[in-house]
Specification:
Length: about 350
């Protein structure tokens, strides 16, 4: 478009990107009754995506769009792997008579966006931005909320809010309504509000709260401090995540009182090296045999039901979230960018 057109930034500042991905996995699990290992996941999956981020017409209005496809080249295991589309409609009603993942095309982002001074707004299918309790599941591509996300940014201070009524994890083709544990009681929506301040000395503080009304309450406090340390960079901090439920009993009652998780972390980066030390302590008291008994920071239940703004990374959080469980993670990594002709590889323990 002509440079003097108010619409020109919409197109001229747009960015189109994409990728082609292959993911293969062969995993066995031990069958206690048969006393032997059996295939759990064995598949080779091909994915591709296109992602469009527009500029802003009149410096105020724009549109973002993202779509991806997945196809199993072969699958000799379970149909519910994260790299394909599962053959049922939502996480609460799996159909285990199905044996194959679905192929198809799914939209993961389709959002109008607007900005004016320090204020911004996005509406449609999107991934949350700004401080808050809402997040998304990740596969090759991210999950998507259908809602409105808005905020204000003043220098180091940011505040954001979001309301949403449906969600789609990346291993589902279509969106689904949010449910309680029983898979029958509808949750009409979720909301979140948060604030963050980044000080000039490298300290960042964040607090947020959100609800799925009549069901779950989520809140967190996050703190971190990043500073130079000798020739490298040091970052450490503390997070507190908390959950409670509104139900008095039965299958929809996740916890007996307040559930929470403490998270301490430290990271030191020196040239090609990264050193990490992290620890968690979890309290998720159960009120009965139907209760969750584990801490999963989200406003709707079941795997893939929804996701929260939880920063404990997978290698140090996986399965370390049971009631009264303590865990320590230590890791050392070395990037190979100075050795290999292709960047992005690393080794670690």
């Amino acid at each position: 478009l002509p440079e003097d057109s108010p619409l020109s930034p919409l197109v001229n500042d747009a960015h189109l990107s994409g990728g082609l991905y292959f993911f293969g996995r062969d995993r066995q699990r031990y069958d206690v009754e048969r006393k032997t290992y059996r295939t759990n996941l064995r598949h080779g999956s091909l994915q591709a995506n296109l992602d469009l981020v527009s500029g802003y017409a009149w410096d105020h209005l724009g549109f973002d769009f993202g779509v991806f496809t997945s196809h199993d080249l072969f699958n000799y295991g379970a149909p519910d792997h994260e790299m394909g589309y599962v053959p049922w409609q939502d996480p609460w009603h799996p159909d285990w008579s199905r044996h194959f993942t679905l192929s198809g095309v799914s939209i993961y982002k389709a959002a109008l966006k607007a900005k004016a001074g320090p204020a911004w707004l996005r509406a449609g299918w999107l991934q949350p931005e700004g401080p808050g309790v809402l997040g998304v599941n990740w596969s090759i591509m991210p999950g998507s909320w259908r809602g409105v996300n808005a905020g204000l940014d003043f220098g180091g201070f940011s505040v954001a809010g979001m309301v949403a009524d449906t969600y789609k994890a990346p291993w589902f083709l279509d969106e689904y309504k949010l449910m309680k544990n029983d898979g029958e009681s509808h949750v009409p929506g979720v909301w979140s509000l948060g604030a963050r301040y980044a000080f000039d000395n490298g300290i960042t503080l964040e607090a947020a709260y959100g609800q799925s009304p009549g069901h779950l309450h989520n809140a967190h406090f996050k703190s971190s401090w990043e500073l130079p340390a000798g020739p490298g960079r040091l970052k450490f901090g503390y997070h507190l995540y908390a959950m409670a439920d509104s139900d008095d009993g039965g299958v929809n009652n996740n916890f007996d009182g307040l559930a929470f998780q403490h998270y301490l972390f430290g990271l030191y980066e020196l040239d090609m090296w990264t050193f990490r030390l992290e620890g968690t302590y979890t309290a998720a008291p159960m009120s009965g045999p139907w209760s969750q008994g584990q801490f999963a920071y989200r406003l709707a239940d079941r795997n893939g039901g929804a996701k929260g703004a939880y920063e404990v990374w997978w290698d140090s959080r996986s399965d370390w979230n049971a009631d009264d469980e303590k865990a320590v993670f230590a890791g050392v990594e070395r990037r190979l960018d100075d050795i290999l002709p292709v960047k992005g590889f690393y080794v670690g323990v």
